[in-house]
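FORM 7B: Structural annotation worksheet

SECTION A. Query
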Amino acid sequence: MTLPADHPLVDGRTSNSALIAALTGGTPSHTPVWFMRQAGRSLPEYRELREGTTMLDSCLDPKMASEITLQPVRRHKVDAGIFFSDIVIPLRLAGIGVDIVPGVGPVLTEPIRTAQQVAALPEMTDESLDPIREAVALTVAELGTTPLIGFAGAPYTVAAYMVEGKPSRDHLGPRTMMHSDPDTWKALMDWAADASGKFLRAQVDAGASAAQLFDSWAGSLPLADYRKFVAPASVRTLDHVRDTGVPLIHFGTGTGELLTAMRDVGVDAMGIDYRIPLDVAAERLGQDITLQGNIDPALLEAPWEVLEAHVRDVAARGAKARSHVFNLGHGVPPHTDPAVLTRVVELIHSL
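SECTION B. Predicted structure
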């Protein structure tokens, strides 16, 4: 394990936490829970803090990013913080023109679609990652025995934004490029893999105790294309942090047909979206991997008795896996009542 001596996993702060025990196939003291997008839009204290600051600027302000990461841990008593950032931050750090347009999502000044454009992509410098390291260090100092999860966008999802230049429903651009110009596609994926990998490594070195790779758009691909054109780049991303020994989580949406291929990039846990029951996922993936998930976010606004029954059902199905980390099957919707999330955490901890 190549981590500094003062890293929370090395000095013992987080090594015995419920999250780390579950991710590594141990027996946690209780079923751990954290929520994707727990830091952010659903919290009034987040909206107040962010007022007048753009999304990407807030991610690159170390004190603000740290405070946003800590807010849901304080409020909900979840078992992990997830670092507040965005998957396109590595593009911004490398000097690529990108912004998060409210109501739209990531938009690039110029889509990347030719071999010449890919060859001209700038390299991210080590110094550009200093704000990320500072934000993580500030956060870890406050979290104590609660682990921080670092995260990055998987290269396919990052490359899909780069080719389309904006969010897309069907991702025709990247799906066409991988077949029509495979050399350019590979060069783009290698660039995205290294950018995300360096971004992830900065978080882990600065104190993150686990790391999650988000492949938001992998579900747009057939299995053969995923294996041939995407999986090698995801392996390359995670290779940036494997020597640290931190547990690795892989998550995508609409990826039921890709689960085994996503597992095979080499991870300790698979995040399962709300479309697949956890017992079915456990059957497909086997007993050598932890499952994470998979409360349906739509049920957060259902009557409590409906939500409670669903949470108990997820727990029962999750018991079929070697170990289970509770989460949503996607992110927290922005209109979620924070009190409901707090109540869900209390319920999970009581099971």
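SECTION C. Observations
The radius of gyration is 19 Å. The chain has one domain: 18-350.

SECTION D. Sign-off
Analyst initials: ____
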